[in-house]
Write a structure and sequence with these properties.
The active site is at 93 (proton donor). This is Class II fructose-bisphosphate aldolase. This protein is an alpha/beta fold. It has one domain: Alpha-Beta Barrel (TIM Barrel). 45% of the residues lie in helices and 15% in strands. The protein has helices at residues 13-23, 38-48, 58-64, 68-81, 98-107, 121-137, 167-177, 202-211, 226-233, 247-257, 265-269, 273-295; strands spanning 27-30, 52-56, 88-95, 111-114, 141-146, 150-151, 181-184, 189-190, 215-218, 240-245. It has an eight-stranded parallel beta barrel with strand order 1-2-3-4-5-7-9-10, surrounded by ten helices. Strand 9 (215-218), helix 9 (226-233) and strand 10 form a beta-alpha-beta unit. Helix 7 (167-177) packs parallel to helix 8 and helix 10 runs antiparallel to helix 12 (273-295). The chain is globular and about 55 Å long.
Length: 306
């Protein structure tokens, strides 16, 4: 990656979620999956004056054929080219290996997620604590996961097993790992809901919030009705501050192109200029809709003192 000064509006996840939680809204963490779809996410954030998070997971890096360095370079290039001034975070989503986290931090990611949720509690704490210590030493925020978030789409996760987050375990987990944000399992799933109906266990979410001060993250935001998302955000003691959205973006891209099968990043780059513009417009519309109708983060960029 080319050496460049990090723009002042590119901040850590902790900085962003502190403002969002105080303001009673959530920030969308959007996964473009293809590097050419980073720009429409940033454009939507700029046009709606919303803080924005751009993310990619370890499995997505492999599945779509992208390195953390390529992804980060396109992100920073787009920030400059598109004259993006709203607060932005570059986030590494679900990641199992510390080596990938180290590469992402070296590439310029300002937030990383360690996902050891398939391990028992003791091992999850130990692994997450190590990742948090490393990232914090580099000035980077850390998200971790407790419980197992199910899936209908195996691009992000290996298993469809679901295990709800235990509030008491969450208290111990955040105290010992010092993670900045916690992804909780309360009923949503990665992917598109086909048979299973989306749901949110608000009582469990309230119980987790009552015991832990850490920022809470809802994975599997694609396909969840807006009223469910907003209720989870507006919990009296402070609800969800970050919502992950990936599948809806890719589905809008593929539908606009008349495609059914996923591409690789290299295949996306071979699209004609017209196809690329069509796809980017579709992704931008989807992100804009999520910002305005689901997250209510529009017009909130002005609340950041950058």
């Amino acid at each position: 990656m080319k050496t460049m000064t990090k723009p002042k509006n590119v901040i850590t996840l902790k900085q962003m979620l502190e403002v969002a939680e105080k303001g009673g809204y959530a920030v969308g963490s959007f996964a473009p999956r293809y590097t050419d779809m980073i720009r429409p996410i940033l454009r939507a954030g700029q046009k709606t004056e919303s803080p924005i998070i751009v993310q990619i997971s370890q499995k997505e890096l492999v599945r779509y054929g992208v390195t953390p360095f390529e992804f980060a370079e396109e992100f920073y290039t787009a920030i400059l080219d598109e004259k993006i001034t709203v607060p932005a975070v570059l986030h590494l989503d679900h990641t199992k290996d510390l080596s990938v986290i180290k590469d992402a931090i070296k590439a310029g990611f300002t937030s990383v997620m360690i996902d050891a949720s398939e391990k028992d509690l003791e091992e999850n704490i130990a692994i997450s604590k190590e990742a948090a210590q490393y990232a914090h030493d580099k000035g980077v925020s850390v998200e971790a996961e407790l419980g197992k978030i199910g899936t209908t789409d195996f691009v992000e996760t290996d298993s469809d097993e679901e295990l709800y987050t235990d509030p008491n375990e969450a208290l111990r987990f955040v105290n010992e790992t010092k993670t900045d944000a916690l992804a909780v399992s309360v009923g949503t799933a990665h992917g598109v809901y086909v048979v299973k109906e989306p749901k949110v266990d608000y009582d469990r979410l309230n119980a987790i919030r009552a015991l832990t001060p850490v920022h809470l993250v809802l994975h599997g935001g694609s396909g969840v009705p807006s009223e469910m998302i907003q209720q989870a955000i507006k919990l009296e003691a402070g609800g969800i501050s970050k919502v992950n959205i990936a599948t809806d973006l890719e589905n809008s891209l593929l539908a606009a192109l008349g495609k059914e099968e996923r591409m690789t990043n290299a295949e996306c780059k071979k699209l004609s200029k017209s196809e690329l513009e069509t796809g980017q417009s579709a992704v931008e519309r989807t992100v804009t809709e999520k910002i305005n109708q689901f997250l209510r983060s529009n017009q909130r960029a002005k609340e950041f003192n950058l």
